[in-house]
Amino acid sequence: MGVTLDEALERAVKAHKVGQVQEADRLYTSILKAQPKHPDANHNMGVLAVGVGQIEDALPFFKAALEANHSIGQYWLSYTDALMKLGRIADAKAVFDQAKSQGADGEAFDQLGLKLTEATANSQCPPSDQFQPIINLFNQGLLQNALFEATQMLVIFPNSVTLLNLVGASNAGLMQFDAAIGSYERALKIKPDYAEAYNNMGIALNNKGDPDAAIKSYKKALSITPDYADAYNNLGNALKHKGDLEAAIQSYKQAISSKPDYADAYNNMGNAFNDNGDPKTAIESYEQVLKIRPEHAEASYNMGNSYKEQGDLEAAIQSYRQAISSKPDYADAYNNMGIALNDKGDPEAAIDSYNKALKIKPDYAEAYNNMGLSQNIKGNLKEALDSFKQAIKIKPDYAEAYNNMGLSHNRKGNLKEALDSFKQAIKIKPDYAEAYNNMGIILNEMGDVGASIDSYKQALKIRPDYAVVSFNLAGTVETISESKSWVEHCLKLDPNHLGAKLFLSALKFYEYDKSEFNDLKQSSLKDHPFMRSFVWVFSLPQLPKLYFHRWAFFDEIVGQSIKNRPFYEFGVWRGEAFQYLIKTFKKGYGFDTFEGLPEDWHEEKAGTYSSDGNIPKIKGGEFIVGKFDDTLPMFFSEPRPIASVINFDADLYSSTICALNQSKPVIDQHTILIFDEFIMNPNWEQDEYKALEEFCLENSYTYDVLAVSFATKQLAVRLVGI
After folding, report:
1. pLDDT in tens, 227-275
2. Which of 166, 260, 281, 599 could serve as a FRET partner for 404 with CA atoms 20 to 30 Å apart?
């Protein structure tokens, strides 16, 4: 048997009296759904709204109650009191007078009349028909117009707290926070218990960057209206601004307790949980938002961020798509969806997403920067550089874009431009550890090892827990003990750094401690390219001398070479190695297309390592431009001087075997062959190693390994039997 309306009302009133606001709200709502004009349910819903600080929302309920039954004095009292709480004294006076004309009387009306008389003396508010048009301007976002009209009306009604509140809100919307705060303070002098003004003043103070003062203002509002949900929500925002996330979360919970369907409070609480390192609970908060308001785009967007934080990229992408479905011009959602797509390994889709963000927001520097990162992954270095430059044009102090531009310049072979980019990033952001690390890499590649070490150490000074930098420093030293010390430091900072773990086993092997290496050789890591490289080197008849940076490696080879001969280099690219070797040998021959790889090299696409056709100008250097298949037969068809050193830096098997076969006439038993990408790469056995093995097998040669560098992947040999 169903519950009657009277029974439902009785239960609602009981719940209301014992503070069960959510249950009372549910019951009153069910009554009004069945009988929209039910006077008691309407009146009591209004009282509930006032109790949680939603006074404006209460007015339609009081009005509906009176329209249904104007003979109940309490309805008139509640309606008049609510208008007075809003500072609408003129409207309150009009309702009060109407009640009196209907015959309302009694002690409560007498007391209300005295309060109205006092309020009328202290505060003269414009009638609603004059005030509403200004409210409309404000709600339409025409803040300057609303401010002008409200200021004009204040001349007539100088003590109107509602006008002063509106002037404050308009100024705050125009980012004129001092003026806004001044208006709220004037209103509070007139009406010290004006909770809404304290709340709004708190918003202005927080936006001005003074969360402490904002918190005081919100607490004052709550002392006047203890169940003021908006004030609790805003208090949470100010506490979050201060970094007090636990207290912020408690405030959001109070807001939700006062107003159970408060979607924005759930959303803000989710943000606080996410910032507090709890994306799982954050997602639960966002789910509550979407139950209340399924089209809440910001909640879907924030949920996407939390899923991304958890590493669930597919769920993140779906959340961003939901945000965009709710808000098609949501540029931030397109941008973050691009990041997730890029992290998922789909840079093409990421670029499409960034372009959509930029179509909505053409001056979106972050989207240009992120698009540059995706273009860089695709190997579109020119496009990547163009994106970073556009980001910097929009945002000249964008340190991250300068850093990323440096990475693209490095890949493109523009070392000087890369160095300049990292320096600019550091100039903007002096504590930018990542830029110092990247600058260390560039300086090492340029041959300035001392400056490289200084840059790495500065990165560690800024971020003492930066494990990667310690690993990089292991590749700048001269001795095994120094390198080992840096690798051990890296593992102290990050025990899971796989490269350091494997590298350390090799260093210990060189110190005759083979236990770690032997254990790894029996583990699941036995097929790792590092381990395969170590196994090959350690199986050689004699353990070759170990070097840690290419310049020490070159110095060793130069020391063992015949210096009055020229050197040859197959794969010149930027010319750093060529420039270094020419200092000793005075004459060198360099072979390159200068347009990048002629074919794909595993993950690297054809055209990578292009110098855009720019041929180095180096004294003593003679450069032969074109594909090896085209240029080498013609070059070596004439007698050429025997080589002191040949540097094979063409990476590809096809290019290396061609260079070996064609350069055979200039190789003798004293010539040293250097291979630049011989070991350590995922497919190293299919590249330069394979070319050397086939060349020796075809010609019945063997070779002695003179030097190796695990850090730079280099190997040096002399042929035996030539």
Report:
1. 999 999 999 999 999 999 999 999 999 999 999 999 999 999 999 999 9
2. 599
Q: Are 32 and 51 in contact (CB under 8 A)?
A: no
Report whether 485 contacts 721 (CB < 8 A): no
Distance CA 323, CA 298 (A): 7
Any idea how long the chain is? 722
536 phi, psi to nearest 5 deg: -65, -50
Contacts of range 479-486, beta carbons closer than 8 Å, 24 or more positions apart: 480/507, 480/510, 480/511, 480/546, 483/507, 483/548, 483/711, 484/508, 484/511
53-58's contacts with Cβ under 8 Å and 24+ in sequence apart are 53/195, 53/225, 53/227, 53/228, 53/229, 53/230, 53/231, 53/258, 54/229, 54/259, 55/82, 55/85, 55/86, 55/196, 56/86, 58/82
498-515 pLDDT, tens digit per residue, is 999 999 999 999 999 999
Q: How many CB atoms lie within 10 A of CB 542?
A: 8
Q: List pLDDT tens digits, range 449-487.
A: 999 999 999 999 999 999 999 999 999 999 999 999 999
Per-residue confidence at 53, pLDDT binned at 50, 70, 90? confident
C-beta separation of 202 from 232 below 8 A:
no
Q: What three-state secondary structure class fits 228? A: coil
Token code pair at residue 627: 């594909």
The Cα–Cα gap between 189 and 168 comes to 14
Residue with tokens 């890296």: 490
Pairing of strands 621-625, 714-720: unpaired
Q: Are strands 588-592 and 672-675 parallel, antiparallel or unpaired?
A: unpaired
Q: Could you give the 3-state DSSP secondary structure of residue 225?
A: coil
What is the C-alpha to C-alpha distance for residues 266 and 603, in angstroms, rounded to an integer?
45
Q: How many CB atoms lie within 10 A of CB 556?
A: 17
Alpha carbon distance 414, 151 (integer Å): 60
**Are 475 and 549 a contacting pair, CB within 8 Å?**
yes
Query: What pLDDT does residue 120 have?
Result: 64
Q: What is the pLDDT of residues 534-591, one digit of tens each?
A: 999 999 999 999 999 999 999 999 999 999 999 999 999 889 999 999 999 989 999 9
pTM of the complete model beyond 0.85: no
DSSP 8-state assignment for residue 610:
B
* Triad 131, 135, 138: Cα angle to 5°: 145
Task: Give the residue from 472, 502, 498, 471 showing the smallest Cα distance to 487.
Answer: 471
Please tell me the number of Cα atoms within 13 Å of 332 on its side-chain side: 10
Q: How far apart are CA 394 and CA 372, in angstroms?
A: 14
Q: What distance in Å separates the CA atoms of residue 407 and residue 391, rounded to the nearest whole number?
A: 15
Kindly compute the dihedral angle of the four CA atoms of residues 702, 708, 710, 715, in this order, to the nearest 10 degrees: -50
